């Protein structure tokens, strides 16, 4: 199986992604946005996967999509999403499904594809999100739902 990452390495990646909420909790980080979430997770992923690249470009016909992280050695793409409102959740899912169509231009060599959803409340479950992905025919994209705290939105008050 030359050229294919071992399943144990992929399992390690998935464990790190599933542990996002715990890692941020231990560091006492309460993100307020996707860029903060990405900034905090970059060193963790980079230390485990040295080939990690940020803002990986995926050229498409009308525009270039950028996925948060790529690990070329694993043929893995990772996108982090931050949601702190039950009302924003349906819109976010619509945007994710639109992005997935654009990310398809990356090619079939990218076989390990993840959306990590950092939710500040339990307004959905991992099973519900998996069912949404299945119903929307998201191909190899795998949703990972984690829960964690966020700083209060100062603009709301």
Detailed description of the structure:
- The chain is of the alpha/beta class.
- The chain has one domain: Trna Endonuclease, Chain: A, domain 1 (3-Layer(aba) Sandwich), CATH 3.40.1350.
- The protein is built from five helices and five strands.
- It has helices at residues 7-18, 20-26, 34-48, 89-103, 126-135; strands at residues 53-59, 64-71, 76-83, 112-119, 141-147.
- It has a five-stranded mixed β-sheet, sandwiched between helices.
- Helix 4 links the parallel strand 3 and strand 4 (112-119).
- It starts with 6 loop residues before the first helix and ends in a 10-residue tail after the last strand.
- The relative contact order is 0.17.
- The model has no long low-confidence stretch (mean pLDDT 90).
> Could you give the order of the helices and strands?
HHHEEEHEHE
Major sheet: order of its strands? Answer: 1-2-3-4-5
What's the number of structural domains?
1
CATH class equals Alpha Beta
Average pLDDT over all residues: 90
Reported for the largest beta sheet, the result is: 5 strands, mixed
**CATH fold-level assignment:** Trna Endonuclease, Chain: A, domain 1
Looking at the overall shape, the CATH architecture is 3-Layer(aba) Sandwich
Pick out the low-confidence regions. none
- Name the beta content range: 15-25%
First-last Cα distance:
56 Å
Supply the helix-strand structural class: alpha/beta
The tally of beta strands, per DSSP, is 5
**Radius of gyration over C-alpha positions, nearest whole angstrom:** 15 Å
Tally of helical segments: 5
Question: Tell me, what's the shape?
Answer: globular
Helix content: 25-40%
């Amino acid at each position: 199986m030359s050229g294919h990452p071992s399943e144990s390495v992929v399992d390690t990646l998935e464990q790190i992604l599933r542990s996002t909420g715990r890692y941020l909790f231990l560091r006492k980080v309460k993100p307020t946005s996707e860029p903060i979430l990405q900034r905090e997770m970059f060193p963790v992923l980079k230390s485990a996967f040295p080939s990690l690249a940020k803002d990986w470009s995926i050229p498409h016909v009308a525009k270039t999509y950028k996925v948060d992280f790529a690990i070329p050695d694993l043929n893995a793409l990772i996108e982090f999403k931050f949601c702190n409102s039950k009302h924003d959740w349906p819109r976010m899912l619509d945007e994710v499904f639109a992005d997935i169509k654009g990310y398809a231009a990356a090619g079939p060599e990218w076989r390990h594809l993840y959306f990590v959803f950092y939710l500040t409340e339990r307004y959905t479950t991992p099973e519900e999100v998996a069912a949404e992905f299945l119903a929307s025919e998201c191909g190899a994209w795998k949703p990972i739902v984690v829960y964690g705290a966020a700083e209060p939105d100062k603009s709301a008050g």
